[in-house]
Amino acid sequence: MALLNRLKDLRGERDLTQAALADLVGVSRKTINTVENGVFVPSTILALKLARALGCTVEAIFSLEEE
Amino acid sequence: MTMTEVERADRMSRGGVYIKALAAAVLLLNVWLQYGDAEYSAAGPRGGSWLVLIGLWVVVLWTGGGFMLSRRLRSLLNDELSLQNRSRALAFGFYAALALAMLVYVANWYVPVATGDAMKIVSAGALSAALLCYAWLEWRWR
C-alpha cells in the first residue's frame, strides 16, 4: 500500500521553499525533496514536525493509497 | 548574502559526495599499487599507514564525520535520510566484503595470494563499495 502526500501543495500554499521548510523542521533540503517525491518515508517524529511547521494535521499531509 | 545552515549543509553534502567517491578510488588504487609488495603489509610505517587509512574512513562512514562542525550543521548532514543512506551503504559494503572474500578464496586456488594482500583486497573493496554506495545515494537525491 503506497503512501500519498500533499507536502508540496501544502508547502506552496504557505509560500515556503524546500530549504525554508527544512530549516523549520531541522532536516536537510534533500530530505524534504525526497519526502515530496515519495522516495523517502519520514519517521513519525518528522511527520509530526512537518505537520506542526505547516500548521495542519499529519493526516492532512499523508494518506494511504486506497487499494 | 549569507547562506543559511540548510543551504550550507546542502553544499557540504554535495562536496561530501565527491570526497567519498575520490576516497574509494584512492583506496582501490592503493591496493593495486601495493599488491605483491610485502613491505606494505609488514609491521612498520608502511604497513601501519594502511590501518590508519582504513580506520579513518571507517570512522567517517560510521559516524558521518564533520566533527569540527557545529551541532546544528552535523544534525542537518546526518538527518534521517542520510542515516538511512548510510545504513544501506554499510549493508552494501558488508555484502561486498563477503563477495570479495569468496573471490579471493577461489583465486588463491589458482594463483597464490598473500594474506596481507587478501586482507587489503577485502577491506579496501568493502569500504570502497560502501563509500561509493553512500555517495551515489546522497547524489541521487540531492
Can you tag this structure with a few keywords?
heterodimer; A: 67 residues; mainly alpha; 434 Repressor (Amino-terminal Domain); two-stranded antiparallel ribbon; 57% helix; globular; B: 142 residues
Rg on CA atoms of chain A, Å: 11 Å
CATH superfamily of chain A: lambda repressor-like DNA-binding domains
> What would the principal axes of the Cα set say about the shape of chain A?
globular
Total number of beta strands of chain B: 0
Instruction: Just give the CATH class of chain A.
Output: Mainly Alpha
Distance between the termini of chain B: 22 Å
Q: Biggest sheet of chain A, strands in spatial order?
A: 1-2
Low-confidence stretches of chain A: none
What string gives the helices and strands of chain A in order? EHHHHHE
Helix/strand structural class of chain A: mainly alpha
The fraction of residues assigned to DSSP E strands of chain B is under 5%
String of helices and strands of chain B: HHHHH
Number of continuous helical runs of chain B: 5
Helix content of chain A: 55-70%
Helix content of chain B: over 70%
Task: Tell me, rounded to a whole number, the average pLDDT of chain A.
Answer: 94
Of all protein chain pairs, which has the greatest interface, and how many residues does each chain bring to it? A-B, 16 and 18 residues
Q: How many β-strands of chain A, per DSSP?
A: 2
- Choose one word for the global shape of chain B: elongated
In short, what is this structure?
The complex is a heterodimer of chains A (67) and B (142). Helices cover 57% and strands 9% of the residues of chain A. Chain A is mainly alpha-helical.
What does this protein look like?
The complex is a heterodimer of chains A (67) and B (142). Chain A is built from 5 helices and 2 strands. Chain A has helices at 7-13, 18-25, 29-36, 44-54, 58-61; strands at 3-5, 62-64. The longest helix of chain A has 11 residues, at 44-54. Chain A is globular. Chain A starts with a strand and ends with a strand. The mean pLDDT of chain A is 94. In chain B, helix 1 (5-34) packs antiparallel against helix 5, helix 2 runs parallel beside helix 5 and helix 4 (80-110) runs antiparallel to helix 5. Chain B has one domain. The longest helix of chain B is centred in the C-terminal third of the chain and has 31 residues, at 80-110. Chains A and B meet through helix 2 and helix 3 of A and helix 1, helix 3 and helix 4 of B.
